[in-house]
Design brief:
The chain is α+β, with helices and mostly antiparallel strands. The protein has helices spanning about 65-75, 80-95, 105-120, 120-130, 135-145; strands spanning about 10-20, 25-30, 35-45, 50, 60, 100-105.
Length: about 150
Amino acid sequence: MFCIFCQNPDTEVIETRLSEDGKSVRRRRKCSKCDKRFTTYERAEELPILVIKRDGRRERFNKDKLRNGIIKACEKTKITIEEIEKIINTIEGEIKNKETTEIESKTIGKLVANHLKKLDKIAYIRFASVFRRFVDLDDFERELKKL
């Protein structure tokens, strides 16, 4: 690591700490030439998650978009915002644990539907009607019979 003051390439790490969130390492360094101290942070680079849409387009995974869809399905139900955030974080974790950085939108939809199905049947039906593109009453009836 180059010294930020004199650009000397020889610096010594004098203290290392894990950050509070556990996602980065804080290092105190000392330059062997000018004797000044400075701090650096080291973190792992996260690869972006790409969502493959139904039409084949790819777009970045958007946590806010996921949140808005779930909130819409959960309106006027007993599901709390904390439960919604837990679903979102669980799904994001499941996606990040996959071996690939690309995921189909229908896979995300299935994950959301499974979580909502366990919490509230109305929220599940609302979400499923959009996710599975229900076009008439028969589609709703078939899904209700499955429940």
